[in-house]
Amino acid sequence: MKFTKYLKDIWVVVLIFIIFFITMLSFFIAFKITKELIFAFVITYIIFSTTILLYSYYRKKYFYQTFLNNLNKLDQKYLITELMKKPNFYEGKIIYDAIYEIDKSMTENVNNYKRHTEDFKEYIELWIHEVKLPLASLNLITHNNKTNQKIKKCLEELDNYIEQILYYVRSENPEKDYLIKKHYLEDIVKNVALKNKDNFLYTKTDFIVSDLDKEVLTDSKWLEYIINQIISNSLKYLKEENPYIKITAYENDKEINLIILDNGKGISQSDLPRVFDKSFTGENGHEKGKATGMGLYICYNLCEKLGHKLKIESVKDKFTKVTITFMKNDYYLTKM
Amino acid sequence: MQKILIVEDDLTISTELKEMLDTASFEGIILKDFDNSLNEILEINPDLILLDINIPKINGQILLKELRKQTNIPVIMVTSRKSEVDEVLSMSYGADDYVTKPYNPTLLLLKINAILKRANKPINFINYHNLKVIPAKGIIKGKEEIILTKNEMIILGTLLNNLGNIVSRDTLMTELWNNKEYINDNALSVNINRLRHKLKEAGIENAIETRKGQGYILK
Question: How far is A256 from chain B (nearest CA, A)?
Fold first, then answer.
C-alpha cells in the first residue's frame, strides 16, 4: 500500500480539505485578519490535516500490508482466514467478515465435491471387486471346458481394461493406499511374464531377461501394473520378423535402473514428448485405432507417487526403450 | 486323494473350482456352512484350503488368524482385492500364498501342487522305473548318471507329478515360465526331444508319448 496511491483513492476527501482551506483563507483575507493569525492557522491546519490523513492511512496500511504479505507467503491461499487479525476499523471489519463467510462456504462446497469423489472412488473399487467375480468364474469355465482360445484372450483384455480403471482411481487420489516394501525385480517381472505368456507365444515374441536379481523398494502390485502396461504396449506394436522384448537392470550407488527394450515399431520423435499426456494416442494409436491414451499417463502418475522415474526413448521403426529408475534406501529414509 | 477345501461364497466360482480340482485328480470340497466355518473346517480336515477374504459372517483374514491358532493346514488366500496391504496382512496371518481374481487356473493348480509338495516331507529323489530322479541335483541315476538341464528337469518333474496322465503344453509352459525360464514353443519341443533322448540313454524307450492336440504323457 503506497501513500500516493492512497491519496489518489481518497481524492474527494483531499479536495474537500483543499476547498475548506481556500475558503477559510479567503474569509480571513476578506475580514482583514492579521497575517500572524493567518500564518498560525495555516500551520495548525496543515499539521492537523496531515495527521488525520496519515492516521487513517497507517491504520489501513497495517491491516492490508500484513494481509497481502501473508497471502503471498501462503501456498494454499484459501487458508488466509487463519492468519488474519480482526482489524480495528469499520471497513476492514466488513471485509474481514465477508472473506471469512466466503471462505467458509467455499470450503463447504469443496468438501462436498471431495465427499462425492471419495464416494465415487469407493464405489468404483467395490464395483471392480464385484466385476472380477464373474470374470474369475468365466476364466474357470473356459479352463474346465477347454473352450476356444479367443475367449481366453478376450477375457484377458477385459481384465486389463478393468485394471486400468482401478489404477487410474488409485493414481488420481491424493491419499496413500500403497505400501513400500523390498521386492526382487525378477519376481515382479515373472508375474507380468506369466500374465502375458500366451500373448508372447502367440506372437512368437522372444522374452529375454537378464540381471534382475536386484532388490528395489516399491509397491509390488503397482509396479506389476506399470511393467505390465509397458510390456502390453510393446506387444501391441511388434515388428513382424523376430520380435523381442528384453528386460535387464543395472545399478550404481544411488539408483537401480530397470530397462525394458523392444525392437518394435517405435514412437515418432514428434510424439515422444507427449506420450505421458492424458488421452494422448499419437500416430501408433491412430493406426491401431484402439488406444485410449491412458496407460502411460497412469504409469507416469503411479511412478511419481512411488518416487520412481519413468523415461522413454525411441527411434521410429527401430526400438523403444523404457527406463524405470528406483532410488536406493536413503531416498526413502530422508523422505519419510 | 488329497482333499482341498473351497471357502468361497460365490456359487459359480466354487462349483467351477471344484470341477477344476476334481479333473486335476484332487478332491474338491465346498464349504457350505459359513455360520460355523472354523469348526466345519477342522472337522473336514483338508490337505489345503482355498480361502476367500470376502466371505459371509466372518472376514477371511480373521478366520485365517483363528485357524492358525489350531492347525498348520496350508492356506492359499484367493481374493479380488488387489492391494499390497491385503497381501502383507494375509501373509502375516500365516497364509502360504496369495492369488488375486481373476486367476490363471493353470497357475493356481501349479501353486497348489507346489504347496502340497512343500507341506509333505521333502522328497530327495523320485523313483521312476529303475531310475532315481534327483531334482535338487538335476540328475537321473540308472547304471550311470545323466545330467539334465534346468528346463529338462522342470519338464520331467511336472510329468512325474502327473505320471500316467496327460500334461498339456500350456501346463509345461506355465511351469517353465513360473520358474523364470521364458522359453518359446520351439524351445519346448527341443527340450522335450532332448529329454526323450536322455531317457532313452538311461534305458527307457518311448517314455514320453505325444497326444496330438492334448499334450504329453509320461509312462
Answer: 21
Residues in B 111-170 with any Cβ partner in A closer than 8 A = none
**pLDDT level of residue A336 (50, 70, 90 thresholds):** very low
| Cβ contact A201–B184 (<8 Å) | yes
Please indicate if any CB of chain B lies within 8 Å of the CB of A177.
Answer: yes
B178 shares a domain with B74: no
pLDDT at residue B24 in the model? 87
Instruction: Quick: pLDDT tens for A126-185.
Output: 899 889 999 999 999 988 887 777 888 888 888 888 988 988 888 877 666 788 889 999
Does B64 share its domain with B98?
yes
Q: Is B91 on the interface with A (CB under 8 A)?
A: no
Q: Containing domain of residue B165, as a range? A: 126-218
Mean pLDDT for chain B?
87
Closest alpha carbon to B135 in B145, B125, B127, B143 = B125
> pLDDT confidence of A246, banded at 50, 70, 90?
very high
Q: Which of B49, B79, B84, B54 is nearest to B67 (CA)?
A: B49
State the Cα–Cα distance between residues B204 and A157, nearest whole angstrom: 44
CA dist., res. A259 & res. B20, Å (int): 38
User: What total number of domains does chain B contain?
Assistant: 2
Q: What is the pLDDT of residue B85?
A: 84
- Over residues B138-147, mean pLDDT: 82
* Per-residue pLDDT band at A330 (split at 50, 70, 90): low
Count how many pairs of residues, chain A against chain B, have C-beta atoms within 8 Å. Answer: 95
A111 class by beta-carbon count within 10 Å (0-12 exposed, 13-18 middle, 19+ buried): exposed
Please indicate, yes or no, whether residues B12 and B88 belong to a single structural domain of this protein: yes
Q: CB contact, 8 Å: A178 with chain B?
A: yes
| Residue from the list B85, B87, B103 with its beta carbon closest to the beta carbon of A136 | B103
Cis preceding linkage at B102, omega within 30: yes
Q: Same structural domain for residues B65 and B164?
A: no
CATH of the domain at B204: 1.10.10.10
Q: Which CATH class is domain A181-335?
A: alpha beta
Strands (E), chain A: 181-184, 206-209, 215-218, 244-251, 255-262, 309-315, 319-327
Q: Are B76 and B141 in the same domain? A: no
The pTM (predicted TM-score) of the whole model is 0.79
User: Is the ipTM, as predicted for this complex, more than 0.85?
Assistant: no
The H or E element containing residue B78 is: strand B75-79
Q: Give B-chain residues touching A130 at CB under 8 angstroms.
A: 80
From B62, B89, B119, the end of a domain falls on: B119
Per-residue pLDDT at B133 exceeds 70: yes
Question: Does B105 share its domain with B68?
Answer: yes
Based on the domain organization, do B53 and B37 belong to the same domain? yes
Cβ-defined contact of B13 to A204 (cutoff 8 Å): no
Q: Which of B96, B119, B142 is the last residue of a domain?
A: B119
